[in-house]
Amino acid sequence: MFSTQFVLTFSLLLSLPILFLLAPRFLPLRHPSIPIPLPDELDDLSLFNRAASLSNPSNTFSHLSSSKSPKLKIAFLFLTNSDLHFAPLWQQFFQNAPSKNLYNVYVHADPSVNVTRPKGTVFEFRFIPAKKTYRGSPTLISATRRLLATAVIDDPANAFFAVLSQYCVPLHSFRYVYSSLVTSTTFDLTQSPSESAQYGGVRLKYKSFIEIISKNRSLWKRYAARGRFAMMPEVPFEKFRGGSQFFVVTRKHALVVIKDRTLWRKFKLPCYRDDECFPEEHYFPTLLSMADPDGCTHYTLTKVNWTGTVNGHPYTYRPPEVSAELIYRLRQSNFSESYLFARKFTPDCLKPLMGLADSVIFRD
């Protein structure tokens, strides 16, 4: 009788892609994507299975949980491969929360980088077991799923899961963010009256704020980056979507992501065109669009400026550009009453941002 570990390992080995059969023979491999190491995959599967088993948790809490409060919480998930440059700004954001029982913080820091744990802050003891990540690779999908699974296991009260990076900053106070996600009936400008119904001050229906793009000139190149037919039959091109890797999802959708095995087998395939391969920008919108399109807003709450993009990176703001006018401009949205977060800022923007914290950013 084979052990469970043997069967799991053998099945994973069988699922490893035969890249040369998928990629066109006339195109050379250029900086091929690094496959997910088998030990990492096994660790993740164990974690995901634990989280999936808590689909209807009763009183399961771990050492990271702040309390057993029945109030809905927002889990803030920071994905980083460098220091948390704006930790002081986020510290003030969380300190201004009406209660510590309204949020949890989790950090996935690339272990190959010596990331400083900000002492005396909400981040100090919130680092989760992490694996190495690479830009434009499935490792970023794994890291995000790791954060989601940890937060699901840690606290059943986690109702929303906000994925952020070290370059993200808040555009509003905690009170505003919490009210917008949990209680407001007007925040989402795209919702119907029935979707904004409340009972006892709590929304009856919640949506995930995730960007889902179905029409873009780069979609076909991104889709075919692993080979023309590599994604078939599970993901036909007409169901392939794109969008920001920074989103806010409901617990229901966090579990959809954690439980998925089918699409993951496709999106973890290495690409033969690294310049067209950004799986972290396609896996989540494709999966949730296929699973529950009406349960998603199709837009993100993290403002990004793609004007003057360089090597796939968005525009990066620098200290001279930081002003009250910039904050007000970044808040403007056509889909919601406001954006809640923004990126990308250079680390030295911290000082001018802190100068605006009380008078502008956290003054709603």
From TrEMBL:
One of its GO terms (cellular component) is membrane. It is found in: Membrane. One of its GO terms (molecular function) is glycosyltransferase activity. It comes from the Eukaryota. It is a single-pass type II membrane protein. InterPro entries: BC10-like, Glyco_trans_14. Keywords: Glycoprotein, Glycosyltransferase, Membrane, Transferase. Pfam families: Branch (PF02485). This is Core-2/I-branching beta-1,6-N-acetylglucosaminyltransferase family protein. The lineage of its organism: Eukaryota, Viridiplantae, Streptophyta, Embryophyta, Tracheophyta.
